[in-house]
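Appendix C reproduces, verbatim, an entry submitted by the partner laboratory led by Prof. M.T., so that reviewers can inspect both the input and the predicted structure.
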Amino acid sequence: MNRLLEKSAILLLCLPGFLMAGFTAVPVLALLAAIFLSGTVQLLSGRRIAWILLFLASAACGVVPVLLCALPLFLYDALREERWWLVLPAVAFAANPDLSAQQIICVLTGLAVTLIWQQRVAGLEKSVGHLTTLHDGITEKNLQLAEQNKRLFEAQDNEVHVATLKERNRIAREIHDNVGHMLTRSILQTGALQILNRDESLKEPIAELKATLDGAMTSIRESVHDLHDDSIDLKRVLQEMADAVDNRFEAVLQYDVSGRITGEIKLCVAGIVKEGISNAVKHSNGDRIDIIFREHPGFYQLLLEDNGHMSEKDVDAVNATLSSGKASQSGGIGLRNMEDRARSVGGNITFNASEKGFRIFLTIPKREG
């Protein structure tokens, strides 16, 4: 749209030259031809055909001298196409005696205005381009800064979370070591007092006191157990295991658990993952370990596998050993430990070897309450 408005203004500068040629057919047709050619060049901008049309229009000025009045329009198109030399043939005919002095002055004025205008427009476009680049750079910096701030906030939140878990662990340990021991001592003393007491009137109060202490001890144990469970961040523990894997492997963790997990299940999963990673690093010839832990409505599911390659013969031999139970009965201490851990939480664990690697599959049912 801007180019069309600029060309309309330049055409007004060319119009007096055509009017001075009279209202005969030649000037009118020349004006219409100049407008048509300029519009076609704009439509075909950037193509070789547009440059050819400009050159032919410029050369036609030698045949139809009145076309020289449209030279500013042709020059504008040539400058926009960055091919100013396309109007050189017309410039060679600019001193044509068939044009009056007034027409030549109009042409020269139009050329001067076109050159100044194009220079200003080029400068403006350069400034706009610079401002656009600057704006894009600032936008990119702002996005980078926002991303850095996000990572910083996440790191701060993580530090707060870790500090909270450590404090919970400390509180649980303090309660267990101090209050728990004192309550245990009080319960033992009350029990001894019950045995030694011979006063019938004190039997009931002592029994109530012992029941109260037992209740307090149970409550303390539950509180310590809950604090200890909450102090274990399973996702963080698994991620740290994945990050610590030998550089030969790429360990990828997928963790999809939203509910609360008991401490014994957390310890079971962490122990099996640690043992599985250790076995993979020792025995696998692959380069990737996938750790997937998901929560389902009725159970938890752990999948740990590597992409090591084994021959079909070796696969059959390993699976035969696994299916017979010999691997966990003799020599397979790691597998036996994993089976014991799974059994301790009521879970089921299976091992499977294939030509694509070794897989450990664990399911742990959820317990009500």
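The longest strand covers residues 357-365. Additional entries are available on request from the coordinating office.
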